[in-house]
């Protein structure tokens, strides 16, 4: 026995050679602890024990040789297992079988494992099926049920002597009291390990982080950096599966800010992958916009901004980014540096060299790490199965969260916005005649066409169906009627977006695109039959725009499109004829306008529209909309989260599949 202190749990892997015992041990420990390869000869030739921290528990995994390899192998394994059972250790025995045909050799191996364990060991045992990828879309239960029926039919044609000796797969499951689990060792998915530990009672259900009761273990991480730095690959490594699409060149593979989540090491982790900062983005104002978008995606606020840097030659673009970040992160009005750290990728290229020496060798990298409070970590994304590097990374994040008294980053960057943007804008001409307009609405309402009509040229791509043509918030500008007009065209609000939290996110993204803030939110409504989706949107908008913490309704108006369909009917009468539309217009202070986008050459309608915007700007003392919606964020999201009660994970119930 190992003289080290006893682990919280010892897992012993039993079975014949080639079923995936070593690979399963690696899956459990989250790293390549045991040699595992495709071979005609047994790879594991002696009992081998490795330890690791798994979901906060010290777990020891014991890999054993194939139980049928040699005459004395079974006896050696039996001695080890019986000694273990007599010790004070908490044990779990996994009898490993590969999904597929249950051969006579498999039957012999199962019999041998049962002899090794004895009655006491069988009480602490599970069947572990490997090769989960071979099942494709079929569940393990369906596979076993199919095997049961197949096996019963075959038994009818067999002699009585063989029936007595034969151990069918369904009978084996019954002998293990219906305790079985499935691994796909080709996937870096630790959830299958968590599920096994939960099933077997070695991980408390109330600690399952999927329960919203303990959100203090949630972690929201924003990855920032240049194209090719390894952000997407790092996101996949952190989450333990391929959630983001990595690239192998210096063109940005991630076209827009996206987020993915998974349960990792007892935490609910959300990673926000941002587009690589290109030369066009590497201006203070554009960099600010991109970071703001990532904050929106990580609502109600990220716990960490992680600057991803590839180990190797530092380029001019790297230096430019390193010099810009302190202007955003380390200033009198923003303490984002307290929430930041550096992640070095391509750790395999260190080749034994000290990372500390490497950092000190470049003043730009050294300054970046210093700005991040000396916090950094190293990843080798080629070694995705090495979960130890992920644990170390998340421990660093936890330390940072603790130092920040458990708080996530929220309004600091927003408070910085005015100062930062004003400094940038003060270098340019007077912007009192600028107009920044955000178009909101359902797919097919006519937002893109209206944007083109307002700007006087085809800037946006309109569509002729109800699928969203605009995949992300985009802005275009032009000089219109003596004003510098910028129009933000947003994706049409689909059924997936029509929840308060998602709707909030999309509107936040439009505000970022309209920095330092929009002068008008224009709700685009198509004249015609009002659908259920229209009504749902009309009912949600007041929750965002007309509340105690937000006065966005003062900056909003309705734009009714397809004006040609009025055919002489009064627009006022049409509005009053529908209580939902009437309520929307009332929320917008009675402000509305009509556009006929087929008559693009009619600039009179555009002048009338911009005059309405000017009247609204005058009523708002020339101010654009800035921080009100940000102040509303936490209230809105807390209300939503309070409605979703605690979903405690139910313990799995096991029953024998054989009657």
UniProtKB/TrEMBL annotation:
The keyword Transferase does not apply. InterPro entries: G_AIG1 (IPR006703), GIMA/IAN/Toc (IPR045058), P-loop_NTPase (IPR027417). SUPFAM superfamilies: P-loop containing nucleoside triphosphate hydrolases. It comes from the Eukaryota. Keywords: GTP-binding, Nucleotide-binding. The keyword Nucleotide-binding applies. Residues 6-212, 216-418, 432-634 form the AIG1-type G domain. One of its GO terms (molecular function) is GTP binding. Belongs to the TRAFAC class TrmE-Era-EngA-EngB-Septin-like GTPase superfamily. AIG1/Toc34/Toc159-like paraseptin GTPase family. IAN subfamily. This is GTPase IMAP family member 8-like. It comes from Sparus aurata (Gilthead sea bream). The gene is LOC115594272.
